[in-house]
TrEMBL record:
Role this protein plays: Part of the binding-protein-dependent transport system for phosphate; probably responsible for the translocation of the substrate across the membrane.
Name used for this protein in its record: Phosphate transport system permease protein
Name of a matching Pfam family: BPD_transp_1
Topology term for the membrane: Multi-pass membrane protein
Taxon lineage: Bacteria, Bacillati, Actinomycetota, Actinomycetes, Micrococcales
Organism of provenance: Nesterenkonia halobia
Gene designation per UniProt: pstC
C-alpha cells in the first residue's frame, strides 16, 4: 500500500506527469536577462542609426554633385549680359548626346544576346567542372581596367575591322548607316560600340546567371515531367521568372556604357556628327569631357560647357535608371531580382 509520501514522490519524479516543469530565477538571473535585452536594443538602435546616416550621406553627396554641376554650368547657357544661349548650347551638346546613345545602343545590341546565352550555358547546360571556370573568367573580365580595353580596341580591333567596314560599304552602302567613306583607321563609333559591348558583357552575364540559378526547381521539374524539352522548359519557366532580372542587368550595362570614358576616348577619332557607323566622326559626352577639360581655363565658358554636358549625362543616366526601376517594378511579383 502506497503511502502519501510515496505518491507525492512518484508524481514529482514521473516524466509523464502533466505538470510542466518550471524554473525559478533569482534576482541575479533577471538582472542578467535585462542587461542582455538592453544590449540588444542598443545594438539595434545603433545599427539602424548607422544605416540611416549612410543613406543620408549618399543623398547629400548626390545633392552636392547636382548643385555643383548646376551652378558651374550657368555660363554655358547665360552670357555676361544675362541673355540666354540655350540654342548655342543645344547645337554643341546634341551631337555628343546622339553619339553617346548610339555607342551605348550598339554595345547593348551586341552584348545582350551573348551575355544571356553565356549565362544560360553556365547555369543550365555546362557541367560543374566547366561552369565554374567559365564563371570565374567572366567575372575577371569585369576587373580589367577600361584603359586596357581602349588600348586593345585602338591598336588591335580597329585595324582588324577596316576590311569589314569596306565590305559593308560595298555591299550595304545604300543604307545610311553604312554609307560614306569607310574609315581607314577603323576608329569609328561602331568600333567604340564593339569595345563597350565587351566591357558590359561580364556585368550582364553575372546578373543573368545569378537570376537563372534562382529559378524554382519545382517549376523546372514540372515542365520536364510534362514532356517539355530543355529549351521549352527554359522558355516556360526560366525566362518568365528572370525577366525583370535580365532587364536589370541590361540597364546596369547601359549605365556602364553611357559613362565609359577612357576606352571610348582612345578608340574614337572625334569629328562631326554623321549617320554612318563606319566613317570617322562622332563623339560621346565622356570622351569630350576627358579631352577638353584639362585644357579648359578655370572659370572659362569652355569649362562651363563641359560641366553642362556632364549635367546632361547625369540627367540621362538618372532617367535610364528610373525607367529600369519602373520596368522591374511591373514584374516584381514574379521575379528573381527582388
Amino acid at each position: 500500500m502506497a503511502t502519501p509520501d510515496d505518491t507525492s514522490t512518484r508524481t514529482s519524479t514521473d516524466p509523464s506527469s502533466d505538470a510542466a516543469p518550471t524554473r525559478s530565477t533569482g534576482r541575479g538571473g533577471s538582472t542578467a536577462l535585462s542587461r542582455s535585452d538592453a544590449r540588444g536594443v542598443f545594438g539595434d538602435r545603433l545599427f539602424g542609426g548607422l544605416a540611416m546616416a549612410a543613406g543620408i550621406v549618399i543623398l547629400a553627396i548626390l545633392a552636392f554633385v547636382v548643385l555643383f554641376l548646376t551652378l558651374n554650368s550657368g555660363p554655358a547657357v547665360v552670357d555676361d549680359e544675362g541673355g540666354l544661349m540655350i540654342g548655342e548650347f543645344v547645337d554643341y551638346a546634341w551631337p555628343l548626346m546622339v553619339g553617346t546613345l548610339i555607342a551605348s545602343v550598339i554595345a547593348l545590341l551586341l552584348a545582350t544576346p551573348v551575355a544571356v546565352g553565356v549565362a544560360l550555358f553556365i547555369s543550365h547546360y555546362a557541367p560543374p567542372r566547366l561552369s565554374k571556370p567559365i564563371g570565374y573568367v567572366i567575372d575577371l573580365l569585369a576587373a580589367i581596367p577600361s584603359v586596357v580595353y581602349g588600348a586593345w580596341g585602338m591598336s588591335f580591333l580597329a585595324p582588324g575591322l577596316v576590311p569589314g567596314y569596306e565590305w559593308l560599304h560595298e555591299t550595304l552602302g545604300f543604307i545610311p548607316l553604312f554609307a560614306g567613306d569607310p574609315s581607314q583607321t577603323g576608329r569609328t563609333i561602331l568600333t567604340a560600340g564593339v569595345v563597350l559591348s565587351v566591357m558590359v558583357l561580364p556585368i550582364i552575364t553575372s546578373v543573368c546567371r545569378e537570376i537563372f540559378v534562382q529559378t524554382p526547381k519545382l517549376h523546372e521539374e514540372a515542365a520536364l515531367a510534362l514532356g517539355a524539352t530543355r529549351w521549352e522548359m527554359i522558355s516556360m519557366t526560366v525566362f518568365p521568372f528572370a525577366r525583370a532580372g535580365i532587364i536589370s542587368g541590361v540597364m546596369l550595362g547601359l549605365g556602364r556604357a553611357l559613362g565609359e570614358t577612357m576606352a571610348v576616348t582612345l578608340v574614337l577619332s572625334p569629328g562631326l556628327l554623321t549617320a554612318s557607323l563606319i566613317s570617322s566622326g562622332n563623339s560621346t559626352i565622356p570622351a569630350e569631357i576627358a579631352l577638353g577639360y584639362p585644357e579648359a581655363p578655370p572659370g572659362s565658358e569652355r569649362q562651363a560647357q563641359l560641366i553642362a554636358i556632364g549635367l546632361v549625362l547625369f540627367v540621362i543616366t538618372l532617367l535610364v535608371n528610373m525607367a529600369a526601376r519602373w520596368i522591374v517594378s511591373r514584374h516584381k511579383d514574379f521575379s528573381g531580382a527582388n
